[in-house]
Amino acid sequence: MTSILEERRHATTGHGGVVARLSYVLPDGTTPVSYAYPPPDGHPWESARFEDVPMHIADARRAAGLPSLHECGFALFDAPSAVRDFEDPAELRARYEPELVELALAATQGRAAWVFDHLVRKRDPAQPTLSFGRTVRGSAPTANGRVHNDYTEASGQRRLRLVLADEALAGAVARYCIVNVWRPLAHPVLDAPLAVCDARSVTPGDAVVGEVRYPRRRGEIYLYRHAARHRWYYYPGMRPHETLVFKQYDSAEGVARYTPHAAFELPDIPPGTPPRQSIEARILVVMEWRQP
Predict the structure, then answer these.
(1) ∠155-179-37 over CA atoms, to 5°?
(2) Residues 101-135 pLDDT 10s
(3) 12 FRET partner, CA 20 to 30 A, in 194, 247, 252, 287?
């Protein structure tokens, strides 16, 4: 195991990335359960055990030859927003959602898109570690440090009918995908940046189905066990005019279908660095309609 001193010695922003710890699940044969609200008495916030593994996280801005969103699972876009207050639901509906639809269609070459979720995250500097990302009810979620993907095969399929609602419309979809659009707020991100894993370096056997319990429903995500072959990237100093688009589900085979991701602690950040603030949105994109 690499020591902290060795990690910091090798941690450099000038030679193609950093070495930082990523939080992988340790499977024990049971289904990991995470709560998005204070759990019942006697239940932990998370039932699984995790291991923090030092991994090289490459500087994606300096990486030559990163392929398309559909091949590696992620892509960066320069996409300034006209939104002034990202915590105003009315402004998000009126201004941000149309911007997201336009961006998602351009990024995926899709035919139609629906924004169905968004979440403002504010990292809590009082939290010493990056865990599942929840603190207390009513507060903004902090950064999620577990290596995960927001959908599984089953929950990705369920999401189609939840978003489209109309059975005939859902039945007309031949191929669709779900993408996340992640944007920093307020300042460049130096604290708890987001790492994404090249989908080509991940195998289906790396994924572990996990359950997320919300106050009124249960969701299903993938957590990931560690593999040395995983290739990680991040975009240093992302600014609010930049967006990271990454794939969370694709109904097609032979393309990037899932993109594991996690927040991580960047080594040697300057004192006084403001805590990360960001907004992420989820968009369902229809890629192909069935022929009538």
Answers:
(1) 55
(2) 999 999 999 999 999 999 898 877 666 556 665 55
(3) 247
**Maximum C-alpha span of the chain:** 63
Q: Is 117 exposed, middle or buried (0-12, 13-18, 19+ CB in 10 A)?
A: middle
In contact, 222 and 208? CB cutoff 8 Å? yes
**Cα torsion angle, 285, 179, 94, 161, sign:** positive
Which tokens is 285 given? Answer: 């994109």
What's this model's pTM, rounded to 2 decimal places?
Answer: 0.89
Closest Cα partner for 282 from 254, 237, 245?
245
The burial class, CB within 10 Å (0-12 / 13-18 / 19+), for 171 is exposed
How many other β-carbons are positioned within 10 Å of the β-carbon of residue 138?
6
Task: Using pLDDT thresholds of 50, 70 and 90, give the confidence band for residue 205.
Answer: very high
Tens-place pLDDT, residues 212-239: 998 889 999 999 999 999 999 999 999 9
Strands 242-250 and 74-78: antiparallel
N-terminal to C-terminal alpha carbon distance within the chain: 58
Here the tokens at position 233 are 């990237």
Cβ pair 53, 24 in contact under 8 A: yes
